[in-house]
Amino acid sequence: MVPPLHCTSTFFYTQYMVLPNLNKTKAEVKKLIKKGLIALAVLFVVFILIRIVITIKNIILPDPSLLPQNSFGKLPAIPFPNNLEDPPPTYSLDTITGLLPSFQKIVKVYKIIPVKTDLLAFQRAKDRVLQAGFTKEPTLVSKDYYQWAEQNPPQTITMNIFSLDFTFLTPYLTATNMQTFSDSDELKTAINDAQLFLDNLSFFPNIDKGKTKTIYYSIKENALSPATSISNTNIVRVDFFQKDIENLPIYYEKISKSSINLLVGKPENRLKVVEGHYSYKKISDESSTYAIKTADEAFIELKQGESYIAIKPESNNIPIKNVSLGYYMGEERGDFLMPVFVFQGDGFIAYVSAVTDEWISN
C-alpha cells in the first residue's frame, strides 16, 4: 500500500531535521572533549610547575622543622657492651619486600637528667628503706653506695643514695620454706606485690604497665631454672618497662629483661619479694633533633661488626627479617637517650647507632 503524499512529505522532513541535529550534537561533544583535554593538560602543567617551585623553595628555604637542630653538639658514642664474636656472623635480607624500609630523616635525642648530690640524700634513703623493714644503721660499701642488713628475716639492700639505684637480696635460693605457686591467680598477684614493693619505697617510676613481663622459675639445686608449669613454679620474675618515647620503644641491653625487675617467691605460704634490682634513668623533656643514617647504611655497619648483638642464634648465617627504630637504654648511666636501628631475625636482635657519624664524637 502506497502511503499518502502528505505522509511521505512529513517523513522526509523529519529525517531532514534529525540528521542535522545529530551532527550538531556530535560536533559540540567533540568540542567539549577537546576543551576538557586542553583543560586537563593545562592543570597537569600547572601541577608540575607548582611541584617544581615547591622543590626549589625547599632547597633554598627548607622547612625548619625538617632540619636537624643538633642543639647538643656532638654526642658521645652509645656505650654498647662488647661483642665477642669469632668468626663474625654473615647477614642476608629476608624482609617481606626483600628490601630495607625507609625511615624519617631526623629523630629526637633526649637528655637524661643527671644524678645530683644532695646533703639530705642520706636521710631520704634511710627513710625509704625503713618502709622495707630496714631499721639498722647502714655501712658504706663504696662511693655513694650504702648497705642495710637485717637478720630477721635475713635481707640486705644496697643503694646509691643519690641515684637511688638499688639491689635487694634474700637467701631464698637456699631457703627450706619456699613453696610453689598454687594457681594462675597467684601468678598475677605477684605483679601487684612487685609494684607494691616499689610503691612502699616511693620508687615506682613512669612505666608502661601494659609492657610488664613475667618469667617463671623453679628452684633446683640452689639455682633458678625455667619452670615447666604452675605446679613447679617457685619464683616469678617481674620486669617493668618504661613508656615509649615519640612512639618509639625503649630497648634494653638484655632485651626482654628490664633494669627494673623483682623476683617474687612464696616463703611460708605468703607471696613476698625475695630479690630486686632497680636502675632507673629519668628522661628530661629537653630534646634536640639529629639526622640519622639510612637503613642501608646501618645494615652495612651491622655487617662490618659495628653493632651490639643482644641475642644471637647458634647459626652464624643470619637472615634479617625486620628493621625498626627505637631508643637504647643501657646499664651504664649516660647523658643522652639516643636512637638505634633494631635488626631482628629468628632468635636474633642487634642494635646499630642511628645518629649520623658526623655528630658522634670519636
Short description:
The protein has 362 residues and is of the alpha+beta class.
Can you offer a commentary on this structure?
The protein has 362 residues and is α+β, with helices and mostly antiparallel strands. The chain has a 9-stranded antiparallel beta sheet, covered by helices on one side. The longest helix is centred in the first third of the chain and has 56 residues. It is elongated, with a radius of gyration of 35 Å. The model has no long low-confidence stretch (mean pLDDT 87).
Topology:
Blueprint: H1 5-60, E1 90-93, E2 106-112, H2 121-130, E3 139-142, E4 145-151, E5 154-160, E6 166-169, H3 184-200, E7 213-220, E8 223-226, E9 235-240, E10 250-252, E11 260-265, E12 272-278, E13 283-291, H4 295-303, E14 308-311, E15 317-320, E16 322-329, E17 336-345, E18 348-353
Parallel strand pairs: 1-15, 10-16
Antiparallel strand pairs: 2-13, 2-17, 3-4, 4-5, 5-6, 6-12, 7-8, 7-9, 9-11, 11-12, 14-18, 16-17, 17-18
